[in-house]
């Protein structure tokens, strides 16, 4: 970690999908230098009501971002001091559904293609065009990721629905049969008793 | 996420990856105990190269900070493909990188845990795993290509763009496959709802008819009707 602090890191993004079991909390730590612009974005893909608690703290423990039961959110901040920033996802409010959470933590800018070049070096027109195409394609890829996540969420709901329909239908058919047949026999039993009592009274 | 169709230039040097991890701000770390398994999911098309750069550290309570792990802490990596087949099941040293290529599209599960291989003694303290997973285009070492094949900067930039576009194509292809599965699930639900509803209505009518007939004959026998 000391190494990461000393080198003014060129930055980068980490995107990870992980499983958060019920009643669990998962924390991630990252060393960030002062003045770096960071963005944390997360989305719940499967599980329950598709929501999670999220919390972001700076090295001194001050809470920079705290939201409960959110399905999706994006938070941008600039690091005010050097140190280890901590962000946690909590599923402690859920008793039996485990969740799959995706997050994307962007720290600073992406490293340049050629580490030796610096920002102020002159680029030819061709190279500038390449850089803008690269940035545009990056946003296309970003949109694709978001689309894929939403589709995964939708598909998870559809599969849930499918299993629920299957079980419920079988269950309901059985209940229907049992209740109908049971009703008849119960009714018959009323009349059988009454008949014996009336005969006893009669004689 | 980016996708590499075929790595024409061969995998980059391990040293390059390690240096990238050191100076690369995009690696987070998580705290674990020994033998505690942490799993991550990567939803990727087939033919994607995934490289995971990692570094493990031990928490030193005396100095109240993390120190690099000794050699007897090993990282166990298990990668399962969407059909639950093992793609990778290997033991690695306290720092380095692991890599695998997806054979089929879908959700791949990457599970990591740390274990001390020293006389089977259980380590009680906190450990940290620094992790940086890169896919496809990000796994290329462009500086290495430039040196090896003496390509101009412009050529390399265009190479990067070409690979990005290939990635987008791959992802869209994958999306079409997924959408088909989604449509199949929805249609199956639709069919189920239809047939079960019909079946239940038939059961309802049949039992209703049976009830009436049975009771009618019962009451006739009892001479109440």
Describe this structure as you would to a colleague.
The complex is a heterodimer of chains A (203) and B (225). Chain A contains 2 helices and 8 strands; from the N terminus they run αββββββββα. Chain A has helices spanning 2-6, 125-202; strands at residues 12-20, 25-32, 37-46, 52-57, 63-70, 72-78, 83-90, 99-107. By secondary structure, chain B is α+β, with helices and mostly antiparallel strands. In chain B, strands 1, 3, 4, 7 and 9 form a 5-stranded antiparallel β-sheet that branches. Chain B is elongated and about 100 Å long. At the A-B interface, β1, β2, β8 and α2 of A face β1, β2, β9, α2 and α3 of B. β1 (12-20) of chain A pairs antiparallel with β2 of chain B, so a sheet runs across the interface.
Overall helicity of chain A: 40-55%
How would a textbook summarize the main sheet of chain A? 4 strands, antiparallel
Q: How many helices of chain B in DSSP terms?
A: 3
Radius of gyration of chain A: 30 Å
Total strands of chain B: the figure is 9
Give me the CATH architecture of the domain at 12-109 and 126-156 in chain A, please. Sandwich
Structural class of chain B: alpha+beta
DSSP strand content of chain A: 25-35%
Mean pLDDT of chain A: 83
**Approximate shape of chain B:** elongated
In terms of structural class, how would the helical and strand content of chain A be classed?
alpha+beta
Overall geometry of chain A comes to elongated
The CA-CA distance between the termini of chain A, in Å, is 100 Å
InterPro entries (chain A): Emp24-like, GOLD_dom, GOLD_dom_sf
Protein name (chain A): Transmembrane emp24 domain-containing protein 7
Function (chain A): Potential role in vesicular protein trafficking, mainly in the early secretory pathway. Appears to play a role in the biosynthesis of secreted cargo including processing and post-translational modifications.
Subcellular location (chain A): Cytoplasmic vesicle, COPI-coated vesicle membrane; Cytoplasmic vesicle, COPII-coated vesicle membrane; Endoplasmic reticulum membrane; Endoplasmic reticulum-Golgi intermediate compartment membrane
């Amino acid at each position: 970690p000391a190494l990461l602090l000393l080198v003014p890191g060129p930055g980068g993004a980490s995107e990870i999908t992980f499983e958060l079991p019920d009643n669990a909390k998962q924390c991630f730590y990252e060393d960030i230098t002062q003045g770096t612009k960071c963005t944390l974005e997360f989305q719940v893909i499967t599980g329950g009501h598709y929501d999670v608690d999220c919390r972001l703290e700076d090295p001194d423990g001050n809470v920079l971002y705290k939201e409960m039961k959110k399905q999706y959110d994006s938070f941008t901040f600039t690091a005010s001091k050097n140190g280890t920033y901590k962000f946690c996802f909590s599923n402690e409010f859920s008793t039996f559904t485990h969740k799959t959470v995706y997050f994307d933590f962007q720290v600073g800018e992406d490293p340049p293609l050629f580490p030796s070049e610096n920002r102020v070096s002159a680029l030819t027109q061709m190279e500038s065009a390449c850089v803008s195409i690269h940035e545009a394609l990056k946003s296309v890829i970003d949109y694709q990721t978001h689309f894929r996540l939403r589709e995964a969420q939708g598909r998870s709901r559809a599969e849930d629905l499918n299993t629920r329909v299957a079980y419920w239908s079988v269950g309901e058919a059985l209940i229907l049969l049992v209740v109908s047949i049971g009703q008849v026999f119960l009714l018959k039993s009323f009349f059988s008793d009454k008949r014996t009592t009336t005969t006893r009274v009669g004689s | 996420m980016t996708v590499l169709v075929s790595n024409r230039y061969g995998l980059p040097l391990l040293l390059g990856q390690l240096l990238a991890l050191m100076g690369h701000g995009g690696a987070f770390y998580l705290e674990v105990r020994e033998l505690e398994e942490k799993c991550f999911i990567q939803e990727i098309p087939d033919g994607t190269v995934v490289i995971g750069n990692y570094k493990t550290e031990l928490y030193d309570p005396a100095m109240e900070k993390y120190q690099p792990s000794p050699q007897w802490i090993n990282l166990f990596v298990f990668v399962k493909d969407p059909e639950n087949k093992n793609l990778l099941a290997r033991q690695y040293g306290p720092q380095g990188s692991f890599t695998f290529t997806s054979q089929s599209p879908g959700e791949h599960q990457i599970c990591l845990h740390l274990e001390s291989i020293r006389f089977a003694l259980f380590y009680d303290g906190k450990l940290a795993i620094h992790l940086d997973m890169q896919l496809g285009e990000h796994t290329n070492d462009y500086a290495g290509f430039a040196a090896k094949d003496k390509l101009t900067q412009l050529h390399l930039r265009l190479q990067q763009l070409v690979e990005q576009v290939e990635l987008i194509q791959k992802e869209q292809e994958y999306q079409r496959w997924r959408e088909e599965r989604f449509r199949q699930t929805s249609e199956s639900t639709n069919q189920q709802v239809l047939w079960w509803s019909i079946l239940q209505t038939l059961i309802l009518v049949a039992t209703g008819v049976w009830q009436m007939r049975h009771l009618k004959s019962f009451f006739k026998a009892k001479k109440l009707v």
